[in-house]
Amino acid sequence: MTPPKKIRWGVLGVASIAMRRAIPGMQKGGWCEISAIASRDKRRAEEAAGNLGIAKAYGSYEELLADPEIDAIYNPLPNHLHVPWSIKAAELGKHVLCEKPISITAAEARQLLAVRDRTGIKIEEAFMVRTHPRWLRARELVRSGRIGQLRLVAGLFGYFNRDLANPRNILEDGGGALLDIGCYPITLSRFLYGEEPTRVFAEIERDSETRTDILTSAILEFPSGRCTFTCSTQIAYVQTMHLLGTNGRMEIRLPLNPPAGQPSEIILGDLKDPSPAGTVVESFPYVDQFTIQGDAFSRAILENTDVPVPLEDSVKNMAVIDAVFRSGEIREWVHPAD
């Protein structure tokens, strides 16, 4: 049978990330067709479908998964629902693009590996940064030796949200800073070094009421260097990332969410001159990273090729997150376990 020109997508839930970014981005792609959306409240699904021009709205996730005209599922549900509903989708023959973090623990992520291997369904963690041209270029520059040997990746990521009804502030839902935004410097540092950290150390402050981590700082020790980062759900909005090498430096401005409609930048710095005169700017025309992510996954389905972020990589990322949590508990160095 001739494959469809576009993959027909269904969306589980009406999460903000889906409504504001993922769905509009995927609708601009050449390989994605958003065909259906589901909510446990059908009125919310119908409202979202109307606002976004989606043909079908379902009042339950089960109904959407049973639709034979859906090829793939985008899963932006709260973190604790990522694995259960991704498994249900895969068991029914739907490919799955699941929002980050892929799971709450590495053990959970391994469940998806087993399902993928048994069903042959494609499953990917939605780290949109991993397919953005700027980050692909940053890795290319590191590997080319443009800043010498990479020795330090340093990042700050935060925002203020203490809405107790928000899943980010509900421990049982997989809330907290590390799973929400701390996962980014972990995946990006692994991506840049091309290595796995051998040990990690962390300090974690938890909210006295919600018990979610609200201020987490970690050191990841790689064979070639280190990553240090702090993430928080209760500080001023910030996202910065710096790469320091033996012969230069690199800054990725607004590393996760470049402003819509504006070019994104990599700032390359001289070894000795910290002033603007010692920098070179590489500018990248605006692209919608959610368009790129959706099309890359859709093409992997149509062409039966590997997805950009394989589940094996996601399991390793979750193992590092597990180790950060464990180190924060015992306040000692911890070795990640695959």
Would you mind describing this structure in some detail?
The chain has about 350 residues and is α/β, with parallel strands linked by helices. The protein has 9 helices and 14 strands. The chain has helices spanning about 15-25, 40-50, 60-65, 80-90, 105-120, 135-145, 175-195, 290-305, 310-330, and strands spanning about 5-10, 30-40, 55-60, 70-75, 95-100, 125, 150-160, 200-205, 215-220, 225-230, 235-245, 250-255, 265-270, 280-285. α1 (about 15-25) crosses α8. The chain is globular. The mean pLDDT is about 95.
> The CATH topology of the largest domain is what?
Dihydrodipicolinate Reductase, domain 2
- Return the string of H and E elements: EHEHEHEHEHEHEHEEEEEEEHH
Tell me the distance between the termini. 39 Å
Radius of gyration: 20 Å
What structural category arises from helix and sheet content?
Answer: alpha/beta
CATH architecture of the largest domain: 2-Layer Sandwich
The rough form would be described as: globular
**Count of spatially separate domains:** 2
Any idea what the CATH superfamily of the largest domain is called?
Answer: Dihydrodipicolinate Reductase, domain 2
Low-confidence spans: none
Strand order of the largest sheet: 8-9-10-7-11-12-13-14
Strand segment tally? 14
> What kind of assembly state do the chains in view correspond to?
single chain
Tell me the strand percentage band: 25-35%
What is the helix fraction of residues, given as a range? 25-40%
The biggest sheet amounts to:
8 strands, mixed
* Continuous helix count: 9
